[in-house]
């Protein structure tokens, strides 16, 4: 991978990242040394041309005490945007060490979305301290973003917008762009608004550039252009970006007035985070667990999840204990029961995983639910019969008992059907009741297959033993 | 969520999607009816203003036979881009039913990335039939894209590029854009190339628009502009887009000559797919399993995974069978052994999930591996001691045996430490040997915790029983 095909004038002598994409360890060492010696010349030279993403990665690679020190030493040479690129816990640690004045100076020049992202996790007193050090104009914009709910479009938008009236033409618009100083840092569309600042539509920049100066803006407005409400859920907005291949979308308030813009770079993070949350939650880990979280926090949150699982394990053990007589009579039952339960658990996890992701990506809905359920039942039946044959033969040969083979075969079919049902029904029901199926499905589903597995296997065994 | 804030001239009377984001079922019904009656007027009216994403969703919601029929009936009115928005298996089914001529007409006007995406899964004979119906110029471009390896940047790029010489100025560039007819459908940057078509740099459109006509293009080139090689892995390219907040990146061949452009809309799909693959593989499902896959395919691939798990279950059962004497002596051992194994399996899954995702997103590397491993060991120890106390007390009270409580407590600490080790080491080693850790880690990890769980619990129990 050739990250470093830089186009021109690359002034850095050493590579910033190694081939795995991690920040180069020699660079980290160099910065640590420079921090120790307060060698501002070296620090400035290293950081000068660095992209905010690399600077963020460098911060993460430094020791906890070194991070705020780097920022204080660099002063105005430190690009606060880098703080949007580090783990939440790293950012919180850093912000605690910096003075309100430093933070205020740092966020002052950022786009509002970045500034809000940095400030939102501060506690109210610290937030106020920083905001008080800004001018009223700066403060109002940030306060507006912070006032929207977490995970809303308003919280992630930048308030810097570029809007022109529909009656302008291409020439006027281009002249305006050339003469205006405080344009957004990056933009991809010209927004069109009426005099009351209501959103009318948007014109992609490439469309503006294809047309001659006298062409009216109103004729260029993209018919497909969409706006989102500031209160819309950011994951829904992300889904829309992805579906319609958007680059940017205007954000309007309840009255349809333009209040900001959301761009694809923020949305990419939302999309990856949403998928990442699903991965972690399905694995029994808090969605927002990060590599840099402190040990006690991690241990505590993982403990809670394991505790719930322990309760369900004991529930399954209680089911087993109903069959103490049979277990002590035929020890093979004790050896094979976990096989039945585990096979059901794995099959249910397969179905559940597909269901959870399809619900999250809106591929599974009322229109195809019946088809999906039927399909999973058939797959469960086919695989149930397959594993019934295999485990039946293995059990019969291993313990020299045909009866035991038949017992495990029956239990296997029953448990793999139960696995298919639980794997579909549990996530769907949780989703219906607005519980994130990724969080809770796993426990319920494996409880079902443990209980059904033990009960069917040992229950059928009890009947067999009674009639032997 | 206000998907339907359309800006202007929405001619459709019914909503396209319901509130869950699924295609409206009444709309599907209307199209089915119109297909039955070959009512071309209705079909054209419904499809006319439809976004490709909605058209793709409509196709998926139709029955298998209806899909190619809709395309044939609509002819040139059907936008083939919609085929890039459906599941692979749906696309394959549709393409099999269409004539080579229809497919050739359909892909002719698409951007090359979309055309390649549609053609790449055809078998070689069908592909050739379609390509033979194109003009040599059209064919060469598509063939070039198809010749790059799967999952390479070259396969996902569009060949339509817009490049200007560095000695032009803003005015010349804008005039060129106004006069050229066959510009790419959408573009976000002007590429700058030397006379031999080597990539020099790129100029974002907003930067072009901020500057007056006489300004030289060479002064506007983005110093951070990066190109990727056509042979680069697309997931690495996606990581770069995400890291540096890119919207588009030029693609060069080995000699540094411009051959195409990759845009963020394709990358968003790559990012979501990569995360989605991890979710599915961790859940024991084939990465490319789709909701519309046929049942036999699904049953077969899930069977393979369950079969591997069955083998490991039998391995664990074999460990258990070493302790038949103890199991038949104290039936409580049979009841509690699965609790120890399951608690270890869940703890290992937590650690493994975090490791797999951190490896995938390049957050975990040589530089922080030791820190991560130490952290997981401490978490494993803390939670191991916690659950040792809980299970020890429960077991002692339940079965009225302090000895049994001590046995399960020791086994719990041992197994949760084993879980932490396996949860880190197994994904990291797989990754080192270039095996995707998301696929294989789960089986290995739970095998370790099952075996260690049974062995430690029953082994300690054997010692206890021998000295009782």
Automatic annotation (TrEMBL), chains A, B:
Query: What is one term from the GO cellular component aspect held by the record?
Result: plasma membrane
Against InterPro entries, the record matches this protein to: CBS_dom (IPR000644), CBS_dom_sf (IPR046342), Mg_transptr_MgtE_intracell_dom (IPR006668), MgtE_N_sf (IPR038076), MgtE_transporter (IPR006669), SLC41_membr_dom (IPR006667), SLC41_membr_dom_sf (IPR036739)
Q: Where is the CBS domain?
A: 221-279
Keyword Cell membrane on this protein? yes
Protein's membrane topology: Multi-pass membrane protein
GO molecular function terms noted in the UniProt entry: magnesium ion transmembrane transporter activity; metal ion binding
Q: Which UniProt keywords apply?
A: CBS domain, Cell membrane, Magnesium, Membrane, Metal-binding, Transmembrane, Transmembrane helix, Transport
The similarity comment for this entry is: Belongs to the SLC41A transporter family.
Write out the function statement from the record: Acts as a magnesium transporter.
Put simply, this protein is called Magnesium transporter MgtE
Organism taxonomic ancestry: Bacteria, Pseudomonadati, Pseudomonadota, Alphaproteobacteria, Hyphomicrobiales
């Amino acid at each position: 991978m050739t990250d470093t095909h830089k186009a021109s004038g690359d002034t850095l002598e050493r590579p910033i990242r190694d081939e795995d994409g991690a920040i180069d360890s020699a660079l980290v060492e160099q910065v640590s040394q420079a921090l120790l010696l307060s060698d501002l010349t070296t620090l400035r030279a290293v950081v000068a041309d660095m992209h905010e993403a690399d600077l963020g990665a460098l911060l993460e690679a430094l020791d906890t005490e070194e991070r705020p020190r780097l920022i204080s030493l660099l002063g105005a040479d430190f690009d606060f945007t880098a703080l949007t690129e580090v783990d939440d816990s790293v950012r919180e640690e850093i912000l605690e060490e910096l003075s309100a004045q430093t933070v205020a100076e740092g966020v002052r020049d950022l786009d509002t979305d970045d500034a809000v992202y940095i400030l939102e996790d501060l506690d109210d007193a610290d937030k106020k301290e920083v905001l008080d050090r800004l001018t009223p104009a700066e403060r109002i914009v940030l306060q507006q973003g912070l006032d929207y709910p977490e995970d809303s479009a308003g919280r992630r938008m930048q308030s810097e917008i570029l809007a022109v009236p529909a009656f302008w033409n291409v020439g006027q618009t281009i002249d305006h762009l050339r003469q205006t100083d405080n344009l957004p840092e990056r933009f991809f569309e010209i927004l069109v608004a009426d005099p009351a600042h209501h959103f009318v539509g948007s014109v992609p920049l490439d469309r503006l550039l294809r047309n001659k100066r006298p062409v009216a803006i109103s004729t260029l407005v993209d018919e497909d252009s969409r706006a989102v409400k500031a209160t819309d859920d950011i994951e829904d907005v992300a889904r829309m970006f992805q579906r319609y291949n958007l680059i940017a979308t205007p954000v309007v308030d309840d009255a349809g007035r333009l209040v900001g813009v959301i761009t694809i770079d923020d949305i990419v993070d939302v999309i990856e985070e949403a998928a990442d949350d699903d991965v972690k939650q399905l694995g029994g880990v808090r969605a927002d667990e990060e590599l840099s979280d402190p040990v006690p926090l991690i241990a505590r949150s993982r403990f809670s999840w394991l505790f719930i699982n322990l309760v369900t394990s004991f529930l399954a053990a209680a089911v087993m204990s109903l069959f103490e007589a049979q277990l002590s009579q035929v020890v093979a039952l004790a050896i094979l029961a976990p096989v039945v339960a585990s096979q059901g658990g794995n099959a249910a996890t397969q179905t559940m995983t597909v269901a959870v992701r399809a619900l999250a990506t809106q591929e599974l809905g009322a229109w195809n639910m019946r088809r999906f359920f039927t399909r999973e039942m058939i797959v469960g039946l086919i695989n149930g019969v397959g594993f019934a044959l295999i485990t039946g033969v293995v059990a019969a040969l291993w313990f020299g008992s045909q009866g035991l083979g038949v017992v495990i075969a029956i239990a296997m079919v029953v448990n793999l059907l139960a696995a298919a049902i639980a794997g579909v029904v549990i996530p769907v029901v949780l989703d219906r009741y607005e519980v994130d199926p990724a969080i809770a499905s796993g426990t319920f589903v494996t409880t079902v297959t443990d209980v059904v597995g033990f009960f069917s296997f040992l229950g059928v065994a009890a009947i067999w033993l009674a009639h032997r």
